[in-house]
Design a protein that fits this description.
heterodimer; A: about 290 residues; mainly alpha; MetI-like fold; two-stranded antiparallel sheet; 13 helices; globular; B: about 350 residues; alpha+beta; Rossmann fold; OB fold (Dihydrolipoamide Acetyltransferase, E2P); six-stranded mixed sheet; five-stranded antiparallel sheet; 8 helices; Spermidine/putrescine import ATP-binding protein PotA (chain B); translocase (chain B); transport (chain B); nucleotide-binding (chain B); AAA+_ATPase (chain B)
């Protein structure tokens, strides 16, 4: 038994070393920065202070935080609402065609993130495809200001992360025992009640995994807001970016980053707990 | 046969179901009576599960009708049918406790909370599940899960309860106990039970009537005694219980001849001068003093506690015949490997089938 533990430790070593060196150590450095003072021309001075964290709760920055939460939240909700039916449809398809359908769902993912985001600019701008189409259909008013709006940012985020959510929900749905759905129908529940009482609760781990994924990546995202939001409003990711590269206030940027990481870790822990509550009966069996 | 005929609660009328090119159920008709314990028995792939799923509403027949208490339910949605299915996998909701699983079907009927909890408690008591009411399915043993699945279906007070291989997942000891338990429960609740099984012993022990299915058709339908003692054809004869088959022919003198021996037999409608198969159960072959019947040699003895199954090689067939001998009765001592014995056949218990 102990030799097996030793062997499994040995096998995990490269990953642990890699993550330790290139993730944990930088995070600790950033954490340290967050408690130091900014240098006059960028960089840092080694004077301890808690001031950076006090500034995070400043209404100006707190508002940006809330905006980010709202945008990420809406993107998450929208992604789940779009992904769930898609995943369900793939599950209902014949077993042989399912891998192909999944491949198409993930296809956009193989192209470059920036190119995909720029494509949305082409679609949404005042002379873009959507406005031209509207005009072609007889619309004569001012071109719609689709680009550089919260809606454009949310659209971009949903578009980019949708494949993950489809995959996560699909993996939950495809593992669901079809007889449970039949049992529910047999016991007198129609399709709708069966969905809300049986299917949805049992696939919550997939929904939570996909949802947390979108939320965490969206709230820290700075490319999509910069390109599709046009710098008109900021998300937390843009704020951090600006502190490091424009305002030269590394410690404040570090403090913002730390708060963001704390939020993400909190969410991931919640998700882990939720999914073990829904699918972790085995845990209960060990206790009982 | 002498029981008064009650009106059929469930009527299956010339039902056909195809999957692509295979015909799963082939023009099958069946009447099931009120309060009957009915078994659909057959090997896997005989169409018994498809038939059950059509009755439950998960498959729609291509042809034919299904009527429940006189009303046509052929195309009715499963949730609208006043009958319930107990799944082979039990299909208990893993995210609900035993109590919640039981309440689910009543909640769907939009009953009041007090009535639901009263009926749940009553059913927990009937099925002896009170101590487990707060557990989730993963915390239950196989036998306990089976009881929960049964309780969850029974609590709906269905007109007919369908059971798909209900004891298949249990070990032999528990299975035998549950056979009697199921039968007792059926008498107690007075609900018509239709059970699907591939286990002929299970069907004989539990059912009032048995239908033997093969290739989507019913080969024989009757009481366990009828099916066991008077099988309608060679398949039923071989599928139910242990049976010796002897290939031979019926002579002009109406005697069955095989391997130079002649046996008196009820021809059962078969003509003279044709090939036939004689079927006889091991318990219907008698051990006789040497010279009084067909002589043979004991080639093997299998001990079964109360009795012994001995294998006797005779001129009748290439395969040794199985003969059942009581462990303490006459002939018990003779039943030893290598012993020369004589076998006696009784015309009343031998059946002839066309080859």
């Amino acid at each position: 038994m102990s030799s097996q533990t030793a062997r499994s430790n040995l096998m995990a070593l490269p990953a642990v070393a890699w993550l330790g060196l290139f993730m944990v150590v930088p995070c600790l450095i950033i954490l340290a920065y967050a408690f130091l003072t900014r240098g006059l021309y960028g960089g840092i001075e080694y004077t301890l202070t808690a001031e950076n964290f006090q500034r995070v709760v400043d209404p100006l920055y707190a508002k940006i935080f809330l905006t980010s939460v709202r945008i990420a939240g809406l993107a998450t909700l929208l992604a789940i609402l779009i992904a769930y039916p898609a995943a369900y449809a793939i599950c209902l398809a014949p077993k042989r065609t399912q891998p192909l359908l999944l491949f198409f769902a993930v296809l956009p993912f193989w192209s470059n993130y920036l190119i995909r985001t720029y494509a949305w600019i082409v679609l949404l701008n005042r002379e873009g495809l959507i406005n031209n189409l509207l005009r072609w259909f007889g619309y004569e008013g001012e071109p719609l200001a689709l680009l550089y709006s919260e809606g454009a940012v949310i659209t971009g985020l949903v578009y980019n992360y949708l494949p993950f959510v489809i995959l996560a929900i699909y993996s939950s749905l495809s593992r669901l025992n079809g007889e449970l759905i039949e049992a529910s129908r047999d016991l007198g529940a129609g399709r709708v009640r069966t969905f809300f009482r049986v299917t949805l609760p049992l696939t919550m781990p997939g929904v939570a995994a996909g949802g947390v994924f979108v939320f965490v990546l969206s709230i820290g995202n700075f490319v999509t807001p910069a390109l599709l939001g046009g710098g008109r409003f900021q998300m937390i990711g843009n704020l951090v970016y600006d502190q490091f590269l424009t305002a030269n206030d590394w410690p404040f940027g570090a403090a913002l980053g730390m708060v963001l990481i704390a939020v993400m870790i909190g969410l991931l822990l919640l998700q882990a707990r939720a999914s073990s509550r829904f699918s972790g009966e085995t845990q209960g069996a060990a206790n009982g | 046969m002498n029981t008064p005929l009650k009106a059929p609660v469930l009527a299956v009328d010339h039902v056909v179901k195809r999957f692509g090119k295979t015909v799963a159920v082939n023009g099958l008709s069946l009447d099931i009576r009120e309060n009957e314990f009915f078994a659909l028995l057959g090997p896997s792939g005989c169409g018994k599960t498809t038939l059950l799923r059509m009755i439950a509403g998960f498959e729609v027949p291509d042809e034919g009708r299904i009527r429940l208490s006189g009303s046509d339910i052929t195309e009715q949605a499963p949730e609208k049918r006043p009958l319930n299915l107990m799944f082979q996998s039990y299909a208990l909701f893993p995210h609900m406790t035993v109590r919640q699983n039981l309440a689910y079907g009543l909640e769907m009927e939009r009953l009041g909370k007090p009535e639901i909890s009263a009926r749940v408690e009553e059913m927990l008591k009937t099925t002896d599940l009170q101590a487990l009411a707060g557990r989730k399915p993963a915390e239950l043993s196989g036998g306990q899960k089976q009881r929960v699945a049964l309780a969850r279906a029974l609590i709906k007070r269905p007109k007919v309860l369908l059971l798909d291989e209900p004891l298949g997942a249990l070990d032999k000891k528990l299975r035998e106990k549950m056979q009697l338990e199921l039968k007792r429960l059926q008498h107690e609740v007075g609900i018509t039970f239709i059970i699907v099984t591939h286990d002929q012993e299970e069907a004989l022990v539990m059912a009032d009537r048995v239908a033997v299915l093969k290739d989507g058709s019913i080969l024989q339908c009757g009481t366990p005694e009828e099916v066991y003692e008077r099988p309608a054809n060679r398949f039923v004869a071989g599928f139910i219980g242990v049976m010796n088959f002897i290939e031979g022919e019926i002579g002009a003198d109406a005697l069955f001849r095989a391997g130079g021996e002649a046996l008196a037999c009820d021809l059962g409608g078969l003509k003279r001068d044709q090939k036939a198969v004689l079927a006889v159960r091991p318990e219907n072959i008698a051990l006789k003093p040497a010279g009084a019947g067909v002589s043979g040699t004991v080639v093997d003895v299998a001990y079964h506690g109360l009795d012994r199954q001995i294998y006797v090689k005779t001129a009748l067939s290439t395969v040794p015949l199985q003969v059942r001998v009581a462990a303490t009765g006459p002939g018990a001592s003779a039943a030893q490997t290598g012993a020369v014995v004589s076998l006696g056949f009784d015309a009343a218990t031998c059946r002839l089938f066309q080859d």
